[in-house]
Amino acid sequence: MTTRAVSFWLNPQELSFQSEQELPHLADVVVIGGGITGISTAYWLSHLGLRPVVLERGDLACGATGRNGGHFVFGTNQSFKDSVEAHGLADTLALWDFTQQSAQLLRDLAHQHNIDCDLRFNRLVYLAMAPAQAQSLQESCELMMSHDLAVKYWDKKEVDQNTQCSSFLAATVEPHHAQLWPAKLVVGLAKAAQQQQAHIQTQVEVQAVTRQAEGFSIMTNQGEIQTKAVVYATNALSYHLLPTLKGVIVPVRGQAIATAPTSQLFDFDWCLSNDTGYAIQRQDGRIIFGGMRWKSPTKEIGIEDDSTLEPLVGEGLKAFLRDTFPPLNDVAIEYEWTGIMGFTADENPLIGELPGRPGEYISAGYTGHGMPVAIAAGKAIAEQISGSAQTPIPKPFRPERFLLT
Prior knowledge:
The chain is α/β, with parallel strands linked by helices. The protein folds into two domains: 13-68 and 183-245 and 346-402, FAD/NAD(P)-binding domain (3-Layer(bba) Sandwich), CATH 3.50.50; 122-176 and 250-343, D-Amino Acid Oxidase, subunit A, domain 2 (D-Amino Acid Oxidase, Chain A, domain 2). Helices cover 28% and strands 27% of the residues. It contains eight helices and 17 strands. The chain has helices at 36-47, 80-87, 89-112, 131-146, 156-163, 182-195, 311-324, 371-386; strands at residues 26-32, 52-56, 71-73, 120-128, 152-154, 170-179, 199-202, 206-212, 215-220, 223-232, 250-259, 269-272, 277-281, 287-291, 333-343, 350-353, 360-364. The strands form two sheets. Strands 3, 4, 5, 6, 11, 12, 13, 14 and 15 form a nine-stranded mixed sheet that branches. Strands 1, 2, 7, 8, 9, 10, 16 and 17 form an eight-stranded mixed sheet that branches. A hairpin with a 5-residue loop joins β13 (277-281) and β14. α1 packs parallel to α8 (371-386). It is globular, with a radius of gyration of 21 Å.
């Protein structure tokens, strides 16, 4: 069977939206980007009575949102232990709570608006393949348990039994995790936002944002729009409109594969503890597996092209599944794709108003963990713009830490 170089999540989907035939001339807020961040922000802005316009240069979810691994990971990007060492316990727990809020919002929105996005809450298992990784997992696990966070440790015997595989030395098990069809979530949320008077325009490329005496002029390939506030929901590509972010948010290309439906091997989702691989097995039996960037000479850093594949990474993904899990030795790979992530030096996103730039907001730089943050981030930014802030943004997420003025 021929592997299709297209994201499983984007094939096929109705991802083109035109709320109006022509671009509106005025908006309360212009949101640049039609992924989960931009659509979440527009949803919450319209929920609060504002009339946002979303401008997306391609189709909805065509960037990182529609090209990821389908994970919704609770907690911190770093290990819990590393996060505590970097930010302190209070701020680490605030990061954890922020993702829990986002997960509850996801659950509520999917239910309220009948969004069929294959949402499934499940366990997440971090797997160690080397002694140092096993030790690091155990240390983080013990620290998390000491602060009453739900987590469990599997030794070698337990991990062998639970994975039916002898390649792993240890694992930690976190009971809170979700998998979903990200593009379907975005489409469902976009429809709900439209019903609340949000305008969503795809195939509109923003060329420049210019500050004026009152608000901003947004120049696009389809004309100009005036607005009082602007939100950059542009993740890895944010520096194209905000040059001060060049080097702050770095593009990194990820790659993933989807197998043909196969027998159920896992009753949990999993990640390799050194962050080189991550997988879910969907309810239809397909395994979505991404990672292995280290196979590329460049580690895929600085690459913005999501239309091509890196053969070395692709072979690494396929070989890992074949070599690690014997039942997958002959499984067909039906899809393979790439997507562009935005990485920051401290692995945390930038969320909130840009320092020294009143009226300009950002939520970007997720370092591969945008899904569990974006819904709550959109709500927090919408509340800041409307003056009804209820969702506190954790200190490690605030843009001023990078002195962007």
